[in-house]
Every structure is written in structure tokens, then in C-alpha cells.
DNA sequence: CTCTATACATAACT
DNA sequence: AGTTATGTATAGAG
């Protein structure tokens, strides 16, 4: 790293010397980088910029693109991200309905349409989920009912625990159209987001039973 | 780059040798990088990974973090972007109502609410824009009307061009509630997204005038 | 820019 | 991980 005299590794104050050194060493660095990547089959990307450029992502991209062109090296996937990130950030901002000052009526209509589409998809998915949970709920209840019937028969034969067995029998669910069961579960316990999961809890069974008894 | 014999710059096939070389040269590269950054007051970041790891952003981040820790160097802003990008991508996907397989009912409700909010904002902004365009439209028409009156008076005095002056007079707009004017402009020319801007065009004035005459 | 003496990096070997 | 012979990178000069 020296040549005609050793140098101390500290900031070179003379501007000309510093720029010359920068140029020379950058060349050497790139050469070594390329050699390493070829010799060892490694992916290497350099991000190199003068301190005064810090923060200028655009400039960074230029440097990277130049580096990519000059070496033919494919740099990391990360390289396209600043631009990409900006695009995504703007996209999110858009969907959040923020910073709409620059949008024309036309743009807003389009955005509204997109939001409408998203809303439809979300509601579809919500319905799907509800249907699924409903199915689980019905299956669960069917199982419980069968078990209850068995227990009841067993109890009457044994002449004990009959009342307990009845507590597990929910004829209400047999007579309702599909949608109502979940609605019931939700209206009885509005804070319930996962009726199926929660149904396993005793207190919910109690609630459902109470509702059932009232009807 | 040699020492005990020169080497050709091409992939080292012997795995052990390749790994040793990688390790040594990487050290040298980092040393030179650090020297350059100190000597020339430059910001340099290295992104370095074995080819088999390509695509594993997580691993890349680990390398970068390790590099940052070991050198104390602040690497570029870009360093946080992969994580950020992922977050943003997921966010966008969310607002587009895509890939909802992993969302629970609870999440969907929240998303629905957010979309509802965005929609409200967008519609508010649309209304704002409409109001503004309406205001511009009214002002424009007022100006034209005044000019028309002046021209009409001038014309009657001069005994010429009276018919032409009347063409610029739109009493229709005076009698309508605020919303109707824009609706009219839009219904007359449905392809119009910017009634105000377009009103300056002669053909639209013609259309409005025609509509006015029919009523 | 080029040149060149010299310090440095490192390939091969232990 | 250490050693060393040798090729490279490069500081300073032209």
C-alpha cells in the first residue's frame, strides 16, 4: 500500500492527493473484488460513495449501475430496492388515502375502484372464513350431540347423571339455517372473533345453552 | 496476487483451496476498503456472499450487520431496505386483498375497517375536488356572463353581433343547485374527467349551449 | 497520464 | 493458524 514511502492511514488533507488516491485505490479495490468473485464464486457488490453524497440514493444507484455495467457482475437483489421501496411506499400511502393533494379526479376514481375491489376480496374472504368456522362449529356440535345421546342412553340405563348429559345436547342448532348459528354465537358474545375455537370454553357453552333454553 | 507462484483468475475448483482463498482475500479486501474509506473520507459498504446464498436476503442482512459491527462503519441507507421492502410489499398485498390465506377473521375485520377509512378519505377528497372544480366552473361562467352582458350591451348599441353575444350567456346555471352544474357537464360529455379544464374548449361550450337551448 | 521503488497481499507449504 | 517467497498495488515523482 505504499510504494515510494509508507503512508499513515488517516484522512488525506490535500484535496488533490486525496482524489488521486481515491481514484487509484478504488480501481484496485474493484479489481480485487472482481478477482475474488471469480476465484471463489462469490457474489460481491460494492457500494461506494464520497461522504458528501451520503443520503443521495439516486447517486448510489448510479454508482451501482455503473459498477454493474463495468464488471458485468450481477449484484444482489437488494440493488433494485431503493427505487422499489419508493414505489411501494407511494403505493401504500395511496391505499391509505394519504397525501392525495397531487391526485386528479381521474386518479381518485381509479383508487376508489381499487379500494372497492380490495374491500370485495376482503369481504369474500371473511365470508369464506365464516363458512368454514360454521362448518367446524356444526361438526363439533354434531359430535357433542352424538356423545350426549350416548351418554344419555347410558345414564338412563344406569339411572344416574341424566341431567348432566342433557346439558350437552343442543337441539337448537339442528333447526336453524346455516348462517344463524354463527350469528347467534356472535350476538351472544359479541367480543367473539373465533366462535369455533371459543366454543370449547365452558362459559360459551353456558351462554349458548342459556340462549337455547330461552327459545 | 501471487506469492509462491502466480495464479490464473478463474474459479478455484478445489473446495478447500477456494475457501481458504476466499477467507484470505476477503480479509484483504475489507482492509483495503477500510483504508480507502479513512484515507479518502468515503462511505463504502461491502455486500459479500457466497453464490449458494444468493437470494437469501436474511443472510445478506446478517453479513451486513456483522460488517457494520466489526468496522463500526455506517453503511448506506439502503441497508435497511430489504426488511423494509418486505414489510411494504406485504402491506400493499394486504391493501390489494391478496394472499389472505393466513389472515384470521379478526385481521380481516381490521383490514376492512382500514379500507373503509381509506375509501372515506378518497371520497372526501373527490368531493373536495368536485367542489373546487365547481367553484372554478361557476366563476368562469360568471365571467363569461358578465362579458356576454357587456358585449350584448355594446352590441345593441352598435346594432351588430347581438346573436353571437347571446351565445355566451348561460342563465341555466344561475337557477341550478350547486351539484347539478357539474353533473350536467358530466352527463353531456361522459368522457369528461376534468370539466373545468375542458370547459375552456370550444366544443364543450357548444355542448353546454346546446343543452341550455334545449331547456 | 506514466513510471518505478517499495510496501503489501497472498499462494503454496507447514 | 503460521511462514515465506513472490506477484501486485500504489505513493510519489516526472
Automatic annotation (TrEMBL), chains A, B:
A cellular-component GO term for this protein: nucleus
**What is the annotated localization of this protein?**
Nucleus
Keywords, ordered alphabetically:
Coiled coil, DNA-binding, Nucleus, Transcription, Transcription regulation
Q: Which residues form the K-box domain?
A: 71-155
SUPFAM superfamilies named among the record's database cross-references: SRF-like
Q: Which GO terms describe its molecular function?
A: DNA binding
Q: Principal place where this protein is found?
A: nucleus
Annotated ranges, domain MADS-box: 2-48
Point out the coiled-coil segments of this chain: 105-154
Q: State the SMART domains in the record.
A: MADS
Q: Which InterPro entries match?
A: MADS-box/MEF2_TF, TF_Kbox, TF_MADSbox, TF_MADSbox_sf
> Is DNA-binding tagged as a keyword?
yes
Note the PANTHER family from the entry: SERUM RESPONSE FACTOR HOMOLOG
The name of this protein is: Uncharacterized protein
Organism, by scientific name, is: Flemingia macrophylla
Amino acid at each position: 500500500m505504499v510504494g515510494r514511502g509508507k503512508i499513515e492511514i488517516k484522512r488525506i488533507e490535500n484535496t488533490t492527493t486525496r482524489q488521486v488516491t481515491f481514484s487509484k485505490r478504488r480501481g484496485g479495490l474493484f479489481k480485487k473484488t472482481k478477482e475474488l468473485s471469480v476465484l471463489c464464486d462469490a457474489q460481491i457488490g460494492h457500494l461506494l460513495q464520497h461522504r458528501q453524497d451520503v443520503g443521495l440514493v439516486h447517486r448510489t444507484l448510479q454508482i451501482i449501475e455503473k459498477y454493474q455495467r463495468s464488471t458485468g457482475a450481477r449484484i444482489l437483489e437488494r440493488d433494485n430496492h431503493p427505487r422499489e421501496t419508493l414505489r411501494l411506499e407511494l403505493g401504500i400511502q395511496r391505499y391509505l388515502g394519504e397525501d392525495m393533494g397531487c391526485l386528479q379526479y381521474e386518479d381518485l376514481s381509479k383508487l376508489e375502484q381499487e379500494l372497492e375491489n380490495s374491500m370485495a376480496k376482503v369481504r369474500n374472504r371473511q365470508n369464506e372464513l365464516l363458512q368454514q368456522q360454521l362448518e367446524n362449529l356444526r361438526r363439533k356440535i354434531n359430535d357433542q350431540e352424538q356423545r350426549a345421546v350416548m351418554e344419555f342412553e347410558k345414564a338412563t340405563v344406569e339411572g344416574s347423571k341424566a341431567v348432566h348429559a342433557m346439558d350437552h345436547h343442543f337441539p337448537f342448532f339442528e333447526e336453524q339455517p346455516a348462517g344463524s348459528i354463527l350469528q347467534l354465537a356472535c350476538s351472544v358474545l359479541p367480543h367473539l372473533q373465533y366462535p369455533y375455537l371459543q366454543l370449547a370454553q365452558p362459559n360459551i357453552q353456558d351462554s349458548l345453552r342459556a340462549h337455547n333454553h330461552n327459545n
